[in-house]
Write a structure and sequence with these properties.
about 170 residues, Arc Repressor Mutant, subunit A, 3-stranded antiparallel beta sheet, 3 strands, WH-like_DNA-bd_sf, DNA-binding PadR family transcriptional regulator, DNA binding
Length: about 170
C-alpha cells in the first residue's frame, strides 16, 4: 500500500494538514489500514524533501498545511497510470510458511492450514460485517470488496494446499 501516493491523491483535492490527511485516508479506505499520525508526518517530510509537496502556511487554527506541487501532480498521474506489478508487493508470508511446513517434514501441515483457514474465515466475516455497516461511500466499499475477494481467494488456495498435501501423503 502506498501511503505516499494516497496522501498525494488527497492533497490533489486541495491543501490539508496532517491530522486531516489521516482522517480522510482512513475514511477513503474504510479504516481497514489504520494510519499512525507519526507516519503521516514522516511521509509528508519525505514528500517535501522530494519536492512533491510544499508547506502551504497555516490554517486559521495555526495548523501547518501542505499543498501538492506540480512535480507531485506528475508523480500522482504516473502512479495512477502505472499498473502495480507482482514484484512490487512484499513476499507472501503465508506461502512461505506453508512451503517451510511442507519442506520441514516434522510440521503438521494440516494443522498449519487449519489455523490459517480459521483466521481467514474470521477476517472474511469481519470484512463482510464492515461492508454491511459501511457508510463511507464507493471508495470504502471497493476497499472492503478487495479485502473480501482476497480472503475468498486465500480460502480457495488453502483448499488447494490441503488437497495437494493429502494426495502427496497418500501417494
Amino acid at each position: 500500500m502506498s501511503i505516499r501516493h494516497g496522501l498525494l491523491a488527497l492533497l490533489s483535492r486541495g491543501p490539508r494538514y496532517g491530522y486531516q490527511l489521516r482522517v480522510e485516508f482512513e475514511a477513503s479506505t474504510g479504516a481497514t489500514w489504520p494510519l499512525n499520525i507519526g507516519q503521516v508526518y514522516t511521509t509528508l517530510s519525505r514528500l517535501e524533501r522530494d519536492g512533491l509537496v510544499a508547506p502551504g502556511g497555516a490554517d486559521e487554527q495555526g495548523r501547518a498545511v501542505y499543498t501538492i506541487t506540480e512535480a507531485g501532480r506528475t508523480e500522482l498521474e504516473r502512479w495512477f497510470s502505472t499498473p502495480v506489478a507482482q514484484d512490487d508487493r512484499p513476499r507472501d508470508e503465508l506461502a512461505i510458511k506453508i512451503a517451510m511446513a511442507v519442506a520441514g517434514g516434522d510440521v503438521d501441515v494440516a494443522e498449519v492450514i487449519l489455523t490459517q483457514r480459521m483466521a481467514t474465515m474470521r477476517a472474511l466475516q469481519e470484512f463482510t460485517q464492515a461492508k454491511r455497516a459501511a457508510t463511507g461511500g464507493l471508495a470504502q466499499r471497493l476497499v472492503l470488496d478487495s479485502l473480501i475477494f482476497k480472503a475468498e481467494a486465500e480460502q480457495r488456495w488453502l483448499d488447494h494446499c490441503e488437497a495437494v498435501s493429502k494426495e502427496k501423503k497418500n501417494a
